[in-house]
Request: fold
Amino acid sequence: MTVDAGADDRALQVAAEFAGAALATIRPACGTTLPSVIVTLQGIIQSTETAAQHVLDAADRSSAAVARLRDGVTLLSSAASREIPETQEAWDDVSQSLEVLGTAIARIGDDMQFQDLTAQYLRAAIDTIEELQEQLSQVLMILPSGAADEQAAPGRLAAKLGSPAMVAPWRQELADHLTKERNADGAAKASQA
Amino acid sequence: MTRILVVDDSPTMRRIIATNLKSAGFDGIDEAADGRVALIKMLRSTVDLLIVDWAMPEMTGLELLRALRSAPSLRDLPVLMITGVGAEEDIREALEAGVNAYIIKPFDADTLAEKVNDLVGPRPTVPGGRP
Reply:
Protein backbone atom coordinates (compact mmCIF):
# COMPACT_ATOMS: atom_id res chain seq x y z
CA MET A 1 0.00 0.00 0.00
CA THR A 2 1.52 3.32 -1.08
CA VAL A 3 1.18 6.45 0.98
CA ASP A 4 0.62 9.70 -0.91
CA ALA A 5 2.39 12.15 1.38
CA GLY A 6 1.59 15.05 -0.94
CA ALA A 7 -2.14 14.37 -0.77
CA ASP A 8 -1.99 14.22 3.01
CA ASP A 9 -0.18 17.55 3.14
CA ARG A 10 -2.75 19.16 0.86
CA ALA A 11 -5.59 17.77 2.97
CA LEU A 12 -3.94 19.12 6.09
CA GLN A 13 -3.47 22.50 4.48
CA VAL A 14 -7.12 22.64 3.41
CA ALA A 15 -8.20 21.61 6.91
CA ALA A 16 -5.99 24.30 8.45
CA GLU A 17 -7.41 26.94 6.11
CA PHE A 18 -10.94 25.82 6.88
CA ALA A 19 -10.21 25.91 10.61
CA GLY A 20 -8.67 29.38 10.27
CA ALA A 21 -11.73 30.67 8.44
CA ALA A 22 -14.04 29.10 10.98
CA LEU A 23 -12.06 30.65 13.84
CA ALA A 24 -12.26 34.04 12.15
CA THR A 25 -16.03 33.75 12.34
CA ILE A 26 -16.29 32.15 15.75
CA ARG A 27 -14.06 34.64 17.60
CA PRO A 28 -16.22 37.71 16.86
CA ALA A 29 -19.36 35.64 17.44
CA CYS A 30 -18.07 34.66 20.87
CA GLY A 31 -16.66 38.03 21.80
CA THR A 32 -19.24 40.36 20.29
CA THR A 33 -22.35 38.73 18.93
CA LEU A 34 -23.27 36.40 21.76
CA PRO A 35 -22.93 39.09 24.47
CA SER A 36 -25.02 41.47 22.37
CA VAL A 37 -27.70 38.81 21.87
CA ILE A 38 -27.82 38.36 25.65
CA VAL A 39 -28.18 42.11 26.19
CA THR A 40 -30.92 42.24 23.57
CA LEU A 41 -32.87 39.36 25.13
CA GLN A 42 -32.55 40.94 28.58
CA GLY A 43 -33.81 44.19 27.11
CA ILE A 44 -36.83 42.39 25.66
CA ILE A 45 -37.64 40.90 29.07
CA GLN A 46 -37.44 44.31 30.74
CA SER A 47 -39.41 46.16 28.09
CA THR A 48 -42.20 43.57 27.97
CA GLU A 49 -42.37 43.64 31.77
CA THR A 50 -42.81 47.42 31.69
CA ALA A 51 -45.40 47.16 28.92
CA ALA A 52 -47.31 44.47 30.82
CA GLN A 53 -47.41 46.69 33.92
CA HIS A 54 -48.78 49.56 31.83
CA VAL A 55 -51.48 47.29 30.40
CA LEU A 56 -52.38 46.13 33.93
CA ASP A 57 -52.52 49.76 35.10
CA ALA A 58 -54.93 50.55 32.29
CA ALA A 59 -56.96 47.41 33.00
CA ASP A 60 -57.24 48.39 36.69
CA ARG A 61 -58.42 51.89 35.80
CA SER A 62 -60.88 50.51 33.26
CA SER A 63 -62.25 47.97 35.75
CA ALA A 64 -62.78 50.73 38.30
CA ALA A 65 -64.57 52.84 35.69
CA VAL A 66 -66.79 49.90 34.72
CA ALA A 67 -67.68 49.36 38.38
CA ARG A 68 -68.67 53.03 38.73
CA LEU A 69 -70.66 52.89 35.50
CA ARG A 70 -72.42 49.74 36.68
CA ASP A 71 -73.46 51.48 39.91
CA GLY A 72 -74.58 54.55 37.99
CA VAL A 73 -76.56 52.54 35.47
CA THR A 74 -78.31 50.62 38.25
CA LEU A 75 -79.33 53.89 39.91
CA LEU A 76 -80.35 55.68 36.71
CA SER A 77 -82.15 52.63 35.39
CA SER A 78 -84.40 52.32 38.40
CA ALA A 79 -85.16 56.07 38.40
CA ALA A 80 -85.70 56.42 34.66
CA SER A 81 -87.81 53.34 34.14
CA ARG A 82 -90.49 54.72 36.41
CA GLU A 83 -90.79 57.85 34.28
CA ILE A 84 -90.30 56.33 30.83
CA PRO A 85 -90.89 52.54 30.77
CA GLU A 86 -89.66 52.25 27.16
CA THR A 87 -86.12 53.04 28.25
CA GLN A 88 -85.84 49.91 30.37
CA GLU A 89 -84.69 47.86 27.41
CA ALA A 90 -81.95 50.38 26.68
CA TRP A 91 -80.76 50.31 30.31
CA ASP A 92 -80.68 46.52 30.22
CA ASP A 93 -78.63 46.71 27.05
CA VAL A 94 -76.17 49.08 28.70
CA SER A 95 -75.92 46.81 31.74
CA GLN A 96 -75.19 43.78 29.57
CA SER A 97 -72.60 45.72 27.61
CA LEU A 98 -70.89 46.72 30.84
CA GLU A 99 -70.73 43.06 31.88
CA VAL A 100 -69.15 42.19 28.53
CA LEU A 101 -66.69 45.07 28.95
CA GLY A 102 -65.80 43.98 32.50
CA THR A 103 -65.17 40.42 31.36
CA ALA A 104 -63.04 41.59 28.44
CA ILE A 105 -60.93 43.84 30.68
CA ALA A 106 -60.35 41.00 33.13
CA ARG A 107 -59.34 38.77 30.21
CA ILE A 108 -56.85 41.36 28.95
CA GLY A 109 -55.25 41.49 32.41
CA ASP A 110 -55.09 37.71 32.71
CA ASP A 111 -53.56 37.35 29.26
CA MET A 112 -50.58 39.41 30.41
CA GLN A 113 -49.35 36.10 31.82
CA PHE A 114 -47.76 35.63 28.41
CA GLN A 115 -45.09 38.12 29.50
CA ASP A 116 -43.90 35.93 32.37
CA LEU A 117 -43.96 32.78 30.25
CA THR A 118 -42.07 34.49 27.42
CA ALA A 119 -39.53 35.84 29.89
CA GLN A 120 -38.96 32.34 31.24
CA TYR A 121 -38.23 31.02 27.75
CA LEU A 122 -35.90 33.94 27.09
CA ARG A 123 -34.07 33.39 30.39
CA ALA A 124 -33.56 29.74 29.46
CA ALA A 125 -32.18 30.87 26.08
CA ILE A 126 -29.87 33.37 27.82
CA ASP A 127 -28.56 30.63 30.14
CA THR A 128 -27.86 28.42 27.13
CA ILE A 129 -26.06 31.19 25.26
CA GLU A 130 -23.96 32.06 28.30
CA GLU A 131 -22.97 28.44 28.71
CA LEU A 132 -22.12 28.17 25.02
CA GLN A 133 -20.11 31.39 25.18
CA GLU A 134 -18.15 30.13 28.18
CA GLN A 135 -17.34 26.84 26.46
CA LEU A 136 -16.37 28.61 23.24
CA SER A 137 -14.12 31.01 25.15
CA GLN A 138 -12.31 28.11 26.76
CA VAL A 139 -11.78 26.42 23.40
CA LEU A 140 -10.62 29.64 21.73
CA MET A 141 -8.13 30.35 24.52
CA ILE A 142 -6.11 27.27 23.57
CA LEU A 143 -6.24 27.96 19.84
CA PRO A 144 -3.88 30.39 18.09
CA SER A 145 -5.34 33.67 16.86
CA GLY A 146 -4.62 34.71 13.28
CA ALA A 147 -4.66 37.82 11.16
CA ALA A 148 -7.92 36.61 9.66
CA ASP A 149 -9.63 37.31 13.00
CA GLU A 150 -8.93 40.99 12.59
CA GLN A 151 -10.35 40.99 9.08
CA ALA A 152 -13.62 39.34 10.05
CA ALA A 153 -16.79 41.36 9.86
CA PRO A 154 -18.39 41.11 13.30
CA GLY A 155 -20.97 43.70 12.40
CA ARG A 156 -22.20 41.73 9.44
CA LEU A 157 -22.23 38.50 11.41
CA ALA A 158 -24.01 40.11 14.33
CA ALA A 159 -26.65 41.52 12.03
CA LYS A 160 -27.26 38.10 10.56
CA LEU A 161 -27.62 36.55 13.99
CA GLY A 162 -29.93 39.30 15.18
CA SER A 163 -28.26 41.52 17.73
CA PRO A 164 -29.67 45.02 17.16
CA ALA A 165 -28.36 46.38 20.47
CA MET A 166 -24.77 45.87 19.36
CA VAL A 167 -24.93 46.70 15.69
CA ALA A 168 -27.54 49.46 15.71
CA PRO A 169 -24.97 52.31 15.27
CA TRP A 170 -23.36 50.43 12.42
CA ARG A 171 -26.73 49.84 10.80
CA GLN A 172 -27.71 53.49 11.28
CA GLU A 173 -24.52 54.61 9.56
CA LEU A 174 -25.37 52.32 6.68
CA ALA A 175 -28.93 53.62 6.54
CA ASP A 176 -27.71 57.24 6.55
CA HIS A 177 -25.18 56.46 3.88
CA LEU A 178 -27.74 54.75 1.64
CA THR A 179 -30.24 57.56 2.20
CA LYS A 180 -27.68 60.18 1.18
CA GLU A 181 -26.73 58.10 -1.83
CA ARG A 182 -30.35 57.76 -2.89
CA ASN A 183 -31.06 61.46 -2.36
CA ALA A 184 -27.99 62.42 -4.38
CA ASP A 185 -29.02 60.03 -7.13
CA GLY A 186 -32.54 61.47 -7.15
CA ALA A 187 -31.21 65.03 -7.33
CA ALA A 188 -28.93 64.13 -10.22
CA LYS A 189 -31.81 62.58 -12.17
CA ALA A 190 -33.99 65.61 -11.48
CA SER A 191 -31.34 68.00 -12.80
CA GLN A 192 -30.93 65.89 -15.96
CA ALA A 193 -34.66 65.98 -16.57
CA MET B 1 -59.62 37.12 56.85
CA THR B 2 -57.58 34.53 54.97
CA ARG B 3 -53.93 35.54 54.69
CA ILE B 4 -52.40 34.52 51.39
CA LEU B 5 -48.76 34.98 50.47
CA VAL B 6 -48.05 35.12 46.73
CA VAL B 7 -44.43 34.33 45.82
CA ASP B 8 -43.33 34.95 42.25
CA ASP B 9 -40.31 36.77 40.82
CA SER B 10 -42.50 38.29 38.09
CA PRO B 11 -44.29 41.48 39.23
CA THR B 12 -46.79 40.90 36.41
CA MET B 13 -47.71 37.44 37.70
CA ARG B 14 -47.95 38.62 41.32
CA ARG B 15 -50.29 41.36 40.23
CA ILE B 16 -52.47 39.08 38.09
CA ILE B 17 -52.75 36.50 40.87
CA ALA B 18 -53.53 39.18 43.49
CA THR B 19 -56.16 40.77 41.24
CA ASN B 20 -57.84 37.42 40.69
CA LEU B 21 -57.76 36.60 44.40
CA LYS B 22 -59.35 39.95 45.26
CA SER B 23 -62.04 39.35 42.65
CA ALA B 24 -62.69 35.96 44.26
CA GLY B 25 -63.20 37.69 47.62
CA PHE B 26 -59.79 37.26 49.25
CA ASP B 27 -58.39 40.45 50.75
CA GLY B 28 -55.45 39.51 52.96
CA ILE B 29 -52.89 39.22 50.20
CA ASP B 30 -49.17 39.74 50.68
CA GLU B 31 -46.42 39.33 48.09
CA ALA B 32 -42.79 38.27 47.92
CA ALA B 33 -40.44 38.29 44.95
CA ASP B 34 -38.41 35.23 45.95
CA GLY B 35 -38.30 32.25 48.27
CA ARG B 36 -35.98 33.77 50.87
CA VAL B 37 -38.15 36.84 51.40
CA ALA B 38 -41.21 34.58 51.56
CA LEU B 39 -39.62 32.39 54.21
CA ILE B 40 -38.80 35.41 56.36
CA LYS B 41 -42.35 36.74 56.00
CA MET B 42 -43.84 33.39 56.97
CA LEU B 43 -41.63 33.12 60.03
CA ARG B 44 -42.60 36.63 61.14
CA SER B 45 -46.36 36.49 60.54
CA THR B 46 -49.15 33.98 60.11
CA VAL B 47 -50.01 32.82 56.62
CA ASP B 48 -53.02 30.62 55.77
CA LEU B 49 -52.06 29.79 52.18
CA LEU B 50 -48.86 30.00 50.18
CA ILE B 51 -49.06 30.47 46.42
CA VAL B 52 -45.67 29.92 44.89
CA ASP B 53 -43.97 29.85 41.49
CA TRP B 54 -41.41 27.16 40.73
CA ALA B 55 -38.69 28.92 38.73
CA MET B 56 -37.35 31.80 40.79
CA PRO B 57 -33.84 33.15 41.40
CA GLU B 58 -32.14 32.79 44.79
CA MET B 59 -34.49 30.10 46.07
CA THR B 60 -36.83 28.11 43.83
CA GLY B 61 -40.39 27.31 44.77
CA LEU B 62 -39.46 23.71 45.36
CA GLU B 63 -36.57 24.66 47.64
CA LEU B 64 -38.92 26.94 49.56
CA LEU B 65 -41.43 24.13 49.84
CA ARG B 66 -38.83 21.70 51.20
CA ALA B 67 -37.72 24.31 53.73
CA LEU B 68 -41.34 24.74 54.82
CA ARG B 69 -42.01 21.07 55.19
CA SER B 70 -38.96 20.71 57.43
CA ALA B 71 -40.14 23.50 59.78
CA PRO B 72 -42.61 22.17 62.39
CA SER B 73 -44.64 25.39 62.49
CA LEU B 74 -45.07 25.52 58.69
CA ARG B 75 -45.21 21.82 57.89
CA ASP B 76 -48.99 21.76 57.39
CA LEU B 77 -49.35 25.07 55.55
CA PRO B 78 -51.37 24.60 52.33
CA VAL B 79 -49.27 25.33 49.26
CA LEU B 80 -50.55 26.04 45.76
CA MET B 81 -47.91 26.02 43.04
CA ILE B 82 -48.58 28.16 39.95
CA THR B 83 -45.92 27.55 37.34
CA GLY B 84 -45.10 27.22 33.67
CA VAL B 85 -43.40 23.89 34.47
CA GLY B 86 -45.83 21.32 33.17
CA ALA B 87 -43.97 18.05 32.50
CA GLU B 88 -45.43 15.02 34.21
CA GLU B 89 -42.26 14.17 36.11
CA ASP B 90 -41.99 17.76 37.36
CA ILE B 91 -45.57 17.79 38.61
CA ARG B 92 -44.94 14.48 40.36
CA GLU B 93 -41.79 15.89 41.95
CA ALA B 94 -43.67 18.93 43.23
CA LEU B 95 -46.49 16.84 44.63
CA GLU B 96 -44.03 14.51 46.33
CA ALA B 97 -42.28 17.53 47.84
CA GLY B 98 -45.57 18.51 49.44
CA VAL B 99 -47.48 20.78 47.05
CA ASN B 100 -51.20 20.57 47.81
CA ALA B 101 -52.46 21.89 44.46
CA TYR B 102 -50.81 22.65 41.14
CA ILE B 103 -51.79 25.14 38.44
CA ILE B 104 -49.98 25.43 35.11
CA LYS B 105 -49.57 28.89 33.58
CA PRO B 106 -51.35 30.40 31.84
CA PHE B 107 -54.30 29.84 34.15
CA ASP B 108 -57.81 31.26 34.21
CA ALA B 109 -59.53 32.99 37.10
CA ASP B 110 -61.99 30.15 37.69
CA THR B 111 -59.22 27.58 38.07
CA LEU B 112 -57.40 29.75 40.59
CA ALA B 113 -60.58 30.41 42.61
CA GLU B 114 -61.47 26.71 42.58
CA LYS B 115 -58.05 25.58 43.85
CA VAL B 116 -57.82 28.29 46.49
CA ASN B 117 -61.34 27.54 47.71
CA ASP B 118 -60.45 23.86 47.92
CA LEU B 119 -57.47 24.70 50.12
CA VAL B 120 -58.84 27.41 52.41
CA GLY B 121 -62.60 27.48 51.86
CA PRO B 122 -64.75 29.79 49.73
CA ARG B 123 -65.06 33.52 50.36
CA PRO B 124 -68.28 35.53 50.00
CA THR B 125 -68.86 36.92 46.50
CA VAL B 126 -67.44 40.39 46.05
CA PRO B 127 -69.91 43.00 44.77
CA GLY B 128 -68.64 44.26 41.43
CA GLY B 129 -66.22 41.36 41.18
CA ARG B 130 -65.79 39.15 38.17
CA PRO B 131 -68.97 38.04 36.52
In short: The helical segments of chain B are 11-23, 35-44, 61-69, 88-97, 109-120. Chain B touches chain A through 20 residues (CB under 8 Å). Chain B has a mean pLDDT of 90. Chain B has one domain: 3-118.
